[in-house]
Amino acid sequence: MIANFNTMSKCFNECNKKYFNNSLPMPEFGTLNKLNTIARFEYRKNKGKNKARKPLEYKKIFFSDCYNFKKKDFIDIMAHEMIHYYISWNGIKDWRTHGRKFMEIANELNEKYGLNITKTKDASLFKLTKNAPKVTFKKKKSLFGFLFD
Ligand SMILES: [Zn+2]
Description:
Elements: H1 5-19, E1 28-32, E2 39-45, E3 56-64, E4 67-68, H2 71-89, H3 100-113, E5 127-128, H4 137-141
Parallel strand pairs: 1-3
Antiparallel strand pairs: 2-3, 4-5
Helix pairs in contact: 1-2, 2-3
Bound molecules: zinc ion.
Protein backbone atom coordinates (compact mmCIF):
# COMPACT_ATOMS: atom_id res chain seq x y z
CA MET A 1 0.00 0.00 0.00
CA ILE A 2 1.29 3.40 -0.95
CA ALA A 3 0.41 6.28 1.36
CA ASN A 4 -2.01 8.86 0.04
CA PHE A 5 -5.11 10.57 1.40
CA ASN A 6 -7.40 7.63 0.51
CA THR A 7 -5.27 4.81 1.91
CA MET A 8 -4.44 6.77 5.05
CA SER A 9 -7.95 7.98 5.84
CA LYS A 10 -9.44 4.54 5.24
CA CYS A 11 -6.87 2.85 7.47
CA PHE A 12 -7.33 5.57 10.11
CA ASN A 13 -11.08 4.99 10.19
CA GLU A 14 -10.68 1.23 10.56
CA CYS A 15 -8.11 1.56 13.35
CA ASN A 16 -10.13 4.23 15.12
CA LYS A 17 -13.12 1.92 15.17
CA LYS A 18 -11.27 -1.25 16.14
CA TYR A 19 -8.67 0.04 18.56
CA PHE A 20 -9.72 3.47 19.84
CA ASN A 21 -13.46 3.13 20.20
CA ASN A 22 -13.95 5.82 17.51
CA SER A 23 -12.71 8.39 20.03
CA LEU A 24 -10.32 10.26 17.73
CA PRO A 25 -11.62 12.91 15.32
CA MET A 26 -10.32 12.71 11.76
CA PRO A 27 -6.94 14.46 11.55
CA GLU A 28 -5.27 15.89 8.47
CA PHE A 29 -3.10 13.55 6.42
CA GLY A 30 0.06 14.20 4.50
CA THR A 31 3.01 12.46 2.91
CA LEU A 32 6.74 12.93 3.35
CA ASN A 33 9.25 12.21 0.62
CA LYS A 34 11.71 10.74 3.08
CA LEU A 35 13.34 7.38 3.56
CA ASN A 36 14.47 7.84 7.14
CA THR A 37 11.05 8.75 8.54
CA ILE A 38 8.33 6.24 7.77
CA ALA A 39 5.64 8.17 9.58
CA ARG A 40 5.11 11.06 11.94
CA PHE A 41 2.38 12.67 14.03
CA GLU A 42 2.33 16.44 14.44
CA TYR A 43 0.04 18.44 16.67
CA ARG A 44 -0.52 21.81 18.29
CA LYS A 45 -2.40 22.15 21.55
CA ASN A 46 -5.52 24.25 21.65
CA LYS A 47 -5.14 27.02 24.22
CA GLY A 48 -8.56 28.55 23.56
CA LYS A 49 -11.80 28.36 25.54
CA ASN A 50 -13.01 25.18 23.85
CA LYS A 51 -9.90 23.19 24.76
CA ALA A 52 -11.77 20.70 26.94
CA ARG A 53 -13.89 19.63 23.99
CA LYS A 54 -11.16 20.07 21.39
CA PRO A 55 -7.76 19.63 23.05
CA LEU A 56 -5.74 19.94 19.82
CA GLU A 57 -6.20 22.71 17.30
CA TYR A 58 -3.96 21.00 14.76
CA LYS A 59 -3.26 17.30 14.25
CA LYS A 60 -1.77 15.64 11.23
CA ILE A 61 -0.49 12.16 10.42
CA PHE A 62 2.27 11.87 7.85
CA PHE A 63 3.47 8.75 6.04
CA SER A 64 6.47 8.46 3.78
CA ASP A 65 5.50 8.06 0.12
CA CYS A 66 8.80 6.26 -0.57
CA TYR A 67 7.57 2.87 0.57
CA ASN A 68 5.09 0.37 -0.76
CA PHE A 69 4.00 -1.08 2.58
CA LYS A 70 2.47 -4.44 3.26
CA LYS A 71 -1.05 -3.92 4.57
CA LYS A 72 -0.06 -5.35 7.96
CA ASP A 73 2.83 -2.89 8.30
CA PHE A 74 0.61 -0.03 7.19
CA ILE A 75 -1.84 -0.85 9.99
CA ASP A 76 0.92 -1.22 12.62
CA ILE A 77 2.42 2.11 11.58
CA MET A 78 -0.96 3.86 11.57
CA ALA A 79 -1.76 2.44 15.02
CA HIS A 80 1.66 3.67 16.24
CA GLU A 81 0.92 7.23 15.10
CA MET A 82 -2.58 7.02 16.55
CA ILE A 83 -1.18 6.19 19.98
CA HIS A 84 0.77 9.47 19.82
CA TYR A 85 -2.47 11.16 18.79
CA TYR A 86 -4.47 9.45 21.58
CA ILE A 87 -1.88 10.46 24.20
CA SER A 88 -1.85 14.11 23.19
CA TRP A 89 -5.60 14.31 22.62
CA ASN A 90 -6.26 12.95 26.11
CA GLY A 91 -3.53 15.04 27.77
CA ILE A 92 -1.78 11.91 29.06
CA LYS A 93 1.64 12.66 30.52
CA ASP A 94 4.47 10.49 29.32
CA TRP A 95 8.11 10.99 30.18
CA ARG A 96 9.39 10.75 26.62
CA THR A 97 8.24 10.14 23.06
CA HIS A 98 7.97 6.39 23.40
CA GLY A 99 7.72 6.33 27.16
CA ARG A 100 5.94 4.05 29.56
CA LYS A 101 2.39 5.15 28.63
CA PHE A 102 3.08 4.78 24.94
CA MET A 103 4.43 1.26 25.41
CA GLU A 104 1.57 0.28 27.73
CA ILE A 105 -0.99 1.13 25.08
CA ALA A 106 1.12 -0.43 22.32
CA ASN A 107 1.55 -3.68 24.23
CA GLU A 108 -2.13 -3.83 25.09
CA LEU A 109 -3.13 -3.44 21.44
CA ASN A 110 -0.45 -5.93 20.37
CA GLU A 111 -1.75 -8.56 22.77
CA LYS A 112 -5.43 -7.94 22.22
CA TYR A 113 -5.39 -7.62 18.44
CA GLY A 114 -2.21 -9.35 17.29
CA LEU A 115 -0.62 -6.11 16.16
CA ASN A 116 3.10 -5.49 16.08
CA ILE A 117 3.41 -1.87 17.19
CA THR A 118 7.05 -1.10 17.91
CA LYS A 119 9.16 1.99 18.54
CA THR A 120 11.06 1.52 15.30
CA LYS A 121 10.68 -0.54 12.15
CA ASP A 122 13.30 -2.11 9.93
CA ALA A 123 12.66 -0.29 6.68
CA SER A 124 15.49 -1.95 4.81
CA LEU A 125 13.13 -4.76 3.81
CA PHE A 126 10.31 -2.51 2.66
CA LYS A 127 9.70 -2.12 -1.05
CA LEU A 128 10.52 1.30 -2.45
CA THR A 129 8.16 3.28 -4.68
CA LYS A 130 9.15 5.30 -7.71
CA ASN A 131 9.01 8.39 -5.48
CA ALA A 132 11.93 7.13 -3.43
CA PRO A 133 15.30 8.75 -3.91
CA LYS A 134 17.76 6.32 -5.46
CA VAL A 135 19.76 4.55 -2.79
CA THR A 136 22.57 2.08 -2.81
CA PHE A 137 22.23 -1.29 -1.16
CA LYS A 138 24.55 -0.17 1.62
CA LYS A 139 22.46 2.93 2.31
CA LYS A 140 19.33 0.81 2.29
CA LYS A 141 20.83 -1.53 4.84
CA SER A 142 21.66 1.39 7.08
CA LEU A 143 17.94 2.22 7.36
CA PHE A 144 17.63 -0.65 9.77
CA GLY A 145 15.65 0.07 12.85
CA PHE A 146 15.33 3.78 12.56
CA LEU A 147 12.19 5.13 11.59
CA PHE A 148 9.39 6.70 13.26
CA ASP A 149 8.26 9.59 15.27
ZN1 LIG B 1 6.46 7.17 17.57
